[in-house]
Structure formats: structure tokens, C-alpha cells
Amino acid sequence: MTLSLDMAKRMLNAGVKQAQGMGNPCSIAIVDENGWLVALHRMDGAVIPSADIARDKAWTAAAFRLPSSAISKFGNPSMPGFGLNTQNWNDRLTTIPGGLPIEDGGDVIGAVGVCGDTPEQDVVVCQAAIAALSAQA
Amino acid sequence: MEELTLEMAKRILEACERWARDIAGFPCSVAVVDKAGALIAVHKMDGAAMATTDIAIEKAWSAVAYKLSTLMMSRWLDPRTMGEKLGDHAFGMLGKGKGRLTFIPGGIPITGDDGEVIGGIGCSGVPPGRGEIDDTAVCEAGWSALYD
Chain B: residue nearest A45 by CA? Predict the structure, then answer.
């Protein structure tokens, strides 16, 4: 299954609703499995840089097929990936929590990134967006 | 109409997508930015090329930055009229805007009730040379949806 714009819109609507309920204006980005932007919404009141940061989180989650919060473990000198921060990574690599891969039957079909409030709350919005996808699929 | 909201941006995008799909027949990316040029929403239609997303955002930004449609700005660099509209300034514009400024037609500013620019729309993905069917027309379809 590939990520369509309709699926992305459904996820964005669910994410925006969740964020509104928490009183937390934020930006939500949906990227495909290769990290290319499919759709992005910046809610009224969300600060300007949040749009780019949300996109970076989504890109990171799609590129590594991991939550963006899991990337920081590669910064441990005992890990084989130590030093990955010295590469360019398309100027998008981030270790801030708030980016989650979207999985469909074990395959990663895309990723969602949220930036607005604390990283913990961003993850909650991510999860709400992904839940909307599986609820109707 | 003083401030563009996400709700208005979604209405614009919806109309752009409908026009691009049903009338133009080309999948494309459409972006809406606010009066500061900051992105509010962008959609890439299924089948549109990956690069179109960023180009749409940059077209919308450029239209707000110059308060002009990028179609008009492209005329500055038209070799047939080069120098007539901007004089010797024309080529100097190319390096400006921190790499974001684009002179490709397909971005329009949105004006509010008092004539001030309150945002912009950018579209990328419709191939050139199709007469009335172009990126600018997709943007205009979205703009008119604000007045429905």
C-alpha cells in the first residue's frame, strides 16, 4: 500500500483534532516512504519554524524507519553508527521526539512528524494521526 | 478577511486540486502561505513529481515577497523584453531571496478586503505550453474559492 493524499489528509485531520483538544497548536507533516513531503498543515497559532521542524522529524522517521527519538542512541560511542551526525543527511536529520514511521503490515509506507509543544505531546499527536489511518483502512 | 487560517487554506487547496484533476488533468502540488510567506499548508496530489512540493512552496513565498504573481516576475527575465521593465536590475534579482526566490509562473498573492497581501498560493506540476491550462490557472481556481 502506498501513501495517498487522501490517507494523508485523514491523518492530518485526526492530528489537528487531537492537538486542538490538547490546546496545542502545532504543525503536522506527512511524508512518503522515501521522505518526500506529501502534505503539511500548520495550525493557526503554531509558530513559523514548527513547519520545517515537523517536516524534518517526519523525514528522519522515514529515512531510518525508526521513531525520530530513537536516533539519539546512535550517538553513543559504543554504537556502530557513532559519528552519523557529521554527515549532511539532507540537512534534515533530527533526534527530537515527534516523528513516527507509518507501518502497514510490517512495511514502512511513510512517516508523520509533529512540532508544536513538548516532545511528549508531539508524540501523542503523531499517534492519533497514525491511529486514524488504521481505523479506516 | 484579514488573516488566512488553516481552514481557509484547506478550502483553497481543495478547489485547486479539483481544478487540477478535473479540468487540467495533471496531478500537481499546491501550497498556501500566510502574509509573512510562512507555509500554512501544502498538498502533493497522487502522481505528482516529488520536486513539485518544494517548488510550489517557493512560488507562493515569492508571490508574497514581491506582492506580485510570479508570472509577472517571469516577464522581468523574458529575453524578448529584457531591460524594458526592470532595466539593468533584472539579472541582479536572480541571486536574491536566499535561494527561495523563483521566477517560474505559478504563484499568486492573495489580497484581503483592503487590498493588502494576506497570503499567497503556489502550484507546480502542470507542464508549460498548454495555453490556458497552467500552474497560475490552478492557483486562481483556489483563490476564487475564497469568495464562494
Answer: B5
Whole-number pLDDT of residue A58 = 97
**In whole angstroms, what is the distance from residue B140 CA to residue B123 CA?**
10
Residue A120: pLDDT over 70? yes
Q: CATH fold of B6-71+104-145, please?
A: Beta-Lactamase (3.30.450)
Q: Is B5 on the interface with A (CB under 8 A)?
A: yes
Domain ranges of chain B: 6-71+104-145
Residue A37 bridge partners (DSSP): A31
ipTM (interface pTM): 0.89
Q: Which of B28, B46, B57, B124 is the best residue to mutate to test the A interface, defined by the most A CB atoms within 10 Å of its own CB?
A: B46
CA distance B53 to A56: 15
- H runs (alpha helix) in B20-119: 52-66, 70-76
For B18-64, write each residue's pLDDT tens digit.
999 999 999 999 999 999 999 999 999 999 999 999 999 999 999 99
To the nearest whole Å, the CA of B52 is away from the closest chain A CA by 10
For chain A, which domains are there? 5-136 (3.30.450.150)
Q: How far apart are CA B67 and CA B116, in angstroms?
A: 9
Grid cell, residue B120, equals 499567497
Name the interface residues of A facing B (CB cutoff 8 Å). 4-6, 8-9, 16, 34, 36-44, 48, 51
For residue B62, what is the enclosing H or E element?
helix B52-66
Q: CB pairs below 8 Å between A and B: how many?
A: 45
Per-residue cell: A94 = 533530527
> Minimal CA–CA distance to B25: which of B122, B108, B134?
B134
Note the pTM of the prediction, 2 decimals. 0.92
Instruction: Name every chain B residue with its beta carbon within 8 A of the beta carbon of A43.
Output: 6
